[in-house]
Amino acid sequence: MGKKKSHNPQVSLNTQDRKERVLLNEVDRVRATLPTPAYLAWCRQQCRKRGGLEFDSVRAVIWRDLLLLIPQASSTSLTPSSSGVFSGVNNNSGRASSVNAGASIAGNSSSNSNTTTTSSTVSGRHFMLAPSVPYAGGTGDGGALSPNCHLTVLDCDIKRSLWHLYPNDTIREEKRQLVKSLIMRCLSHRPQLHYYQGLHEVVGFVEYTVGAHVPRETLVAMVDQLLSQHFYAFCHQNMKSCEGILHGVHFALKVQCPELAAMLEELQLGPGTHFALPWVITWFTHHLAESHP
Question: Structural domains in the chain?
Answer without folding.
Answer: 14-128 (no CATH), 147-233 (1.10.8.1310), 239-288 (no CATH)
